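Hello,

I think I submitted the calcium ion job twice by accident. Can you confirm which output corresponds to this input? Input:
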Amino acid sequence: MQVLFIEDDTALAKALIESLQREGFTVNHLAQGNLAVSSIMTDLPDIVILDLGLPDMDGTDVLKAIRKQSADLPILILTARTSLEDKVIGLDLGADDYLAKPFEVDELLARLRVFERRASTLKHADLTIGKVTLDSVSHQVHVADNVIDLSRREFMVLKALMENAGRVQTRESLESKLYSWGDEVTSNTIEVHIHHLRKKLPDRFIQTLRGIGYIVKLT
Ligand code: CA
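Support: Only one job matched these inputs. Its output is below.
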C-alpha cells in the first residue's frame, strides 16, 4: 500500500512515517500542498493522509484538487482544527475520514486498516479497458478472450498504466514502481517493457507522449 502523507510538521511526520513503514506501508512524504497536487496528477497513491494546516495553501484546496483527479481515492484528513464545522467541511469536500490532533498512532493505523480492507475488496475486481482485462489476483491478462503471456515486470508496468488510465505516467513514476518491487532498473528498462507490451496488446492501447511518458486512455 502506497501512502501519500502531506504534513508540514517535520517532527510529527518523521514519527508517523516510521510507524507506517513498520506496518508495511510505503510512504511518500510531502510538506507542501502544491507538491502534493502535482504528485497526484502523475502518480496515484493507494491512500492519502492530508494535514489541513499547510504553509503554502489551504488543505481544503488540496483536498478539492485531489478529488478532481480521483473520485474514490481514500483520503484521511488530519487537523488541529477541532470544531464540528471544520470536520463537516472536510467530509463535505470528500474526505473519507477525519482525525483531530493530537491523536494516537494506533488510532490512525486502525483507520488505515479500514481503508486497506476496502481497497483490497476493490482490487479483487478485474480491471477492463477496451478489449484488455487485467486480473491483479491471478496476474492474468486477457485481450478479448485470449490470455496473453507477460513477464512479471511487463505485468507491473501494464497494471500501473491501467490503474491510472486517463492519466499520464512518467517514466520516472513507472521506474519507481519497479524499484519498489526490488528490481534493478537501467536507463532504458521502461522503453523495453513498453515495446514488448505493445506487441502483445491492441494497437495504440499504450500511447506515448513524447518527452513526458505513457498513457492508457479510457475508452
Ligand atoms: Ca500543519
